[in-house]
Amino acid sequence: MKEKNVLAERLKSAESARKRFDEDIKRYATESITREEIRQSLEDEIRRLTQTVGQTEGGLREKEEQVIRCEAYIDGMESKLHACQVPLAFLWMLHHNLEASFMQ
Fold first, then answer.
1. What's the 3-state SS for 53-88?
2. Cα 33 from Cα 104, distance rounded (Å)
3. pTM for the model
4. More confident residue, 46 or 103
5. What span, in angstroms and rounded, lies between the C-alpha atoms of 59 and 3?
């Protein structure tokens, strides 16, 4: 009878240990899946951010090129304005001289 109780106790202990082992396996599997999901999510986020950075850099390059074109256009217009101001000053002086000669 004592032997039967010892065996029953060992069986109970073994079943308890197996149950803990099964729970540990489930927990590790869940943690592993969770880690994999987190890793995948982070990789997706990195890909998305890399793509966004690439698009932003491309947009910045395009804007820089537009600024360069605008600066060149402004420089050209300033040159034309300067070129027009010299004849305008001459014409203004000529106008006043003619006006003065008509007044005499």
1. HHHHHHHHHHHHHHHHHHHHHHHHHHHHHHHHHHHH
2. 103
3. 0.49
4. 46
5. 82
Residue range 29-42, pLDDT digits in tens: 888 888 889 999 99
CA–CA distance, 67 with 59 (Å, rounded to integer): 12
Q: In sequence order, which residues have a C-beta less than 8 Å from that of residue 95 and are 6 or more positions away? A: none
The letter for the amino acid at 58 is G
The pair of three-digit structure tokens given for residue 93, joined into one six-digit string: 């002086």
- Spatial separation of the C-alpha atoms in residues 42 and 81, rounded to whole Å: 57
Rounded Cα distance between 52 and 50, Å, is 5
**Tens-digit pLDDT profile for residues 39-54:** 999 999 999 999 999 9
